[in-house]
Amino acid sequence: MSATFIGLMSGTSADAIDGVAVSFEQTNAKIQAARSDPISPSLRKRIADIMQGRNDNLDAVASLDADLSRAFADCAEKLIARLDTRPRAIGCHGQTVRHRPEKGFTVQLGTGAVIAARTGIPAVTDFRSADIALGGQGAPLVPAFHREIFGSSEEDRVIVNIGGIANVTLLPRNGTVTGFDTGPGNTLLDYWYREHHEGAWDVDGAWSCTGEVDQALLKKLFSDEYFFRPAPKSTGLEYFSPDWLAPHLSGNENAEDVQATLRQLTAKGIAAAVEKNLPQARAVYLCGG
Q1: What is the average pLDDT across 62-72?
Q2: Check: CATH 3.30.420.40 for 3-133?
Q3: By CB atoms within 10 Å of each CB, which of 103, 108, 151, 212 scores lowest?
């Protein structure tokens, strides 16, 4: 007998709320409906301000939490309207605004009570805190799911998710499944693009392709100790932020060359993580933004 569940989240890029309704029957999963609702520029600015420690007083955080909760509920209601059967539960990861596992906490906004009250369906939230309480990193969340869907007894595989922060899941044929953040994904690329263009991101990497990788800059960026820290590890926009990037720039660089270099930094971080931790991998699957 199958059961349908709804999953909701917005990633560190804070560009949209993604929602999916999935039915599960034994080991089979089937997508019943999916949608992506763009986050308004004003809401994105509030998220970014709190992420970067600007205007992050308790009232501002609680107010954003309430508004995001309503936005998550809106997405859920639109999905429910497309389904023939009522979902059993809603899982909402929420919007990460602070991730500090080294200090014993992580903060995701999006209140399950609001989502449950609006939809009449039980809502589950706060997925990361239990892992941190047990001494883990609380991120990434998906390795267990990847194991069930993509695991193989014939070859070693890697799943790469490139969101605001990039992460990998290592799926060896034999042994323990692990996952960790490799470093920046598109967060610095998006920031640098918005500094020089209208729009939210570099569509298809078109602008970055007009530049050339600055090898000296790439060497400085990749010398950061995070890239050499052993797994498990996780990071966030609190670390790989515009303030992290600024000291590495002289101001004389061509803007498109910096964009090309940031693109290469993301790729280099992912490749180095795979080469170090599962060099015998025969298949690498890419997903995310």
Answers
A1: 96
A2: yes
A3: 103
